[in-house]
Amino acid sequence: MNETDELIRECLAIDYRNLPAEVVDRAKYLLLDYLGVAARGALSDSAAAARKMVAKLDTATEGAVVIGARQKARPPYAALLNGIAAHSIELDDVVNEASLHPGVTVMSAALAAGHMANCSGRELIAGIVAGYEVAIRLGIGLDPAAHYARGFHPTATCGTLGSAVTAAKILALNAVEMKNALGISGSQAGGLMEFLSDGAYTKRLHAGWAAHSGLLAALLAREGFTGPGSVIEGKFGFLKSYSDKPHPDRILADWGNPYQVLKTSIKPHSCCRYKQGPIDGVLAIMRENRLAAADIGSVELTVLKAGFALVAEPPVRKQNPQSIVDAQFSMPFGAAVAILFGKATLDEYSQKNLDSPEVRKMMQRVRCVADPELEKEFPRKWPARVKLTTNRGQVFSAYIEYPKGDPENPLTWQELIAKFRELVRPVYAADHSSKIIGMIRSIEDADTLQPLSELLPAGK
Predict the structure, then answer these.
(1) From CA 99, how far away is CA 155, in angstroms rounded?
(2) CA geometry: angle at 209 spanning 322 and 326, to 5°?
(3) What is the CA radius of gyration of the chain?
(4) Distance between CA atoms of 218 and 256, rounded to whole angstroms?
(5) Confidence at residue 460, expressed as pLDDT on a 0 to 100 scale
(6) What is residue 79's predicted lDDT score, i.e. its pLDDT?
(7) Residue 81: pLDDT band by 50, 70, 90 thresholds?
(8) Where are the alpha helices (DSSP H) in 42-170?
(9) DSSP for 195-262, written as a single string
């Protein structure tokens, strides 16, 4: 099968008028989550550094919105900056089966392309749904574990192709142009996992660069620039170049049944997705048994094989994180702050806690293990098992089948709105936040994205 042609055909056929109501609702839900994460991420040092760089290159006084900042930029730069910001605090959406974060790439490209096209809310939603389909299905087709084993970050690679299709759709490219855009984006896809060696900011760049590259691919294609028409399935195409175990049959399987936005998870904890289930288990045991941090003698956490190298190895380094990025990918740190503070939100991932003797002492009590039983349903499920042993020898265990935020255990709209409000509190006043929420809840009625864009710069 020619997966490239089939993927383009399916994406062109996506039309707001034919989307189920639950898909439209979930696209808006994910958009609000993205905006909250991007606005708060704009306060990060990595986002600030990127904005300084763009300000020196892009002197335009008019442009696309840079979320959570008092700056505008040409759309490709806006996509770059918003993607970096949204991926900076490890609270962005994620898909279990593909092991990637679609929103930070697709949404960033969609808003930038939407600015250029002056698109409607309905066109925005259709573009987002298409981009999620492409990014996620390619992630599944690569086999995330095999892709990681080669040192690549799926958000960066698959996100580039997903962003290209999103931008192409919103810019109303035809079938030939969209195929070219996808082909061009394949030569821009990259993103190494080496950031794990020293906690560098490059993981955050991956999302912004994917959105930036996807938009540029669509813009090049619109002007007649060509890309390989077999970019997915070709001998030197995306699947064979980025994976030792590709599954091309999975890319188009059960198209629209369900749409991939319905399989996307929301993060309640500000850290790597592989840490979410174990943290849920720690919090449940502490709460249900009314345990205090002083009671805990040892902690044993099961970590899925695909994430072990990300959050559990090498043990000495994971028990001694040196930066916020290190902490975001340290299972011992996540467990320690959950035990000590009863939560693992953005506030807990701080330099103060990195330097805390209390946190460091608790991290030494955390041990990560593998469990073949938990692997049987991965990646469809990301379960976790937790065992806490008290100083008195009492043993408490928990099994988490679906971490909080998974589609099977979702945040309600009310919980999502609460997450949004808490995240943007340093950026927008409460009434300003309410306006953004109201706008997103009815974005399908917007003839243009201009009113939303006017709400997204920093409001304080």
Answers:
(1) 8
(2) 10
(3) 21
(4) 24
(5) 59
(6) 98
(7) very high
(8) 45-57, 75-86, 103-117, 121-142, 144-149, 154-170
(9) GGGTT-THHHHHHHHHHHHHHHHHHHHHTT----TTTTTSTTSHHHHH-SS--GGGTSTTTTTT-GGG
